[in-house]
Amino acid sequence: MANSWQTTPDARVEDRSGQDHPDAPAAFDDAATRQARNSAAFWTATGNARGHEVIRRRGFLAVLGDERAGARILLQEPDPDAHELAELTELAGRPTGPVDVEDPFSSTDLSHLGMRNWQMPIMVRPPGPVPAPAMEVVRVRRAHELRAAEEIVIEGFGLTRFTPYRPGEMFPTTLTEQPGVDVFLAVLDGEPAGAGVTVVHDGSGSHYWVGTAAAHRSRGVGRAVMLGSLAPMSNLTVTLTASRLGRPLYESLGFTAVTSSTWWSSQ
Predict the structure, then answer these.
(1) How far apart are the C-alpha atoms of 60 and 40, rounded to whole Å?
(2) pLDDT tens digits, residue range 51-67?
(3) Contact, 178 vs 45, CB < 8 A?
């Protein structure tokens, strides 16, 4: 399937290059901020749907869940002040399950938290047409579709924190009622095969939890999920944070790696 949009070699921006290219789309300039704001919208929606505490500060957003869901902390600015860092440190130290901290700016040293850390590229796709997927992709509307998407994501990402499985724990029924949130499900041979979540916030879109059921891997399901969920956002700049395995797929869909996000995890 041919790409409907892709960068030329001259327009490519390498990870953490620190250099601006004259041909780079304007959307590349604020990729970290776009990803930070969209992730905050996604985790706020998730926290509200789950009934978890959501704490907002200038420099970060925190969602405090139970012992299975744990805590998610998202840096919102490249320069949190001393009071914010002290509060962030206190929140990360609470014994409430696993803790994950995301710094899209890769500018704050959190080594004192004693967590493992790694980097993943933030990728950007400017607005542009999207080809049709090679299989059916539906926007989730019914409870059984949401449960199917939830199980695919838990399995696909190896989220052992959500095992044994409790329906609606990761994706509560009210998740799709949150502003800007949509869940998509790919169907192959009559069975749920892949899933993903999108969030539209403040004029930008982003993807989360794009996964494929083990029984349907290597059959183009991930590409179908991406295409089906990109189509409603074709007029928007879209960002995502890519895994090593996912990056080639996203590049083939017109995404370009612009900068790196640093992640810290207690697991």
Answers:
(1) 9
(2) 999 999 999 999 999 99
(3) yes
Region of residue 202 (phi > 0: left; psi between -120 and 50: alpha; otherwise: beta) = left
Q: How many CB atoms lie within 10 A of CB 182?
A: 19
Contact 125/174 with Cβ under 8 angstroms? no
Amino acid at 152: I
Is the Cα torsion angle 2, 123, 120, 132 positive or negative in sign? negative
Per-residue pLDDT reduced to its tens digit, 76-91: 999 999 999 999 999 9
Q: Is the preceding peptide bond at 164 cis, omega within 30 degrees of 0?
A: yes
Residue 65 in tokens: 């869940």
Q: Are 125 and 4 in contact (CB under 8 A)?
A: no
Is the confidence at residue 15, as pLDDT, over 60? no
Asked if residue 18 has pLDDT above 60, the reply is: no
Q: What is the pLDDT of residue 24?
A: 54
- Output DSSP code: residue 14: -
Q: Which two tokens stand for residue 237?
A: 């700049």
Give the Cα separation of 103 and 76 in Å (integer): 8
pLDDT tens profile 182-207: 999 999 999 999 999 999 999 999 99
- Pick the closest to residue 197 from 71, 56, 66, 38 (CA basis): 38
